Amino acid sequence: MQALSPELETMISTEAEATQFMHVAMPAIASGDVNEVARVVTLRWTPKDLCPLLGHGDANVRRVTAITLGLVGDGRVISCLARTLHDADGQVNEMAEHAMLSIWFRLCQPAAAEPFKRGMSLLADEHHAEAVEAFEQTLQIDGRFGEAWNQCAIAQYFMGHWQESIACCKRTLNLIPSHFCAVAGMGHCHTQLGQYDRATRCYRKALEINPRMTAIARMIQRVEERQKASNEWSGVYVARR
Question: Among 185, 191, 193, 192, which Cα is nearest to 168's?
Answer without folding.
Answer: 185
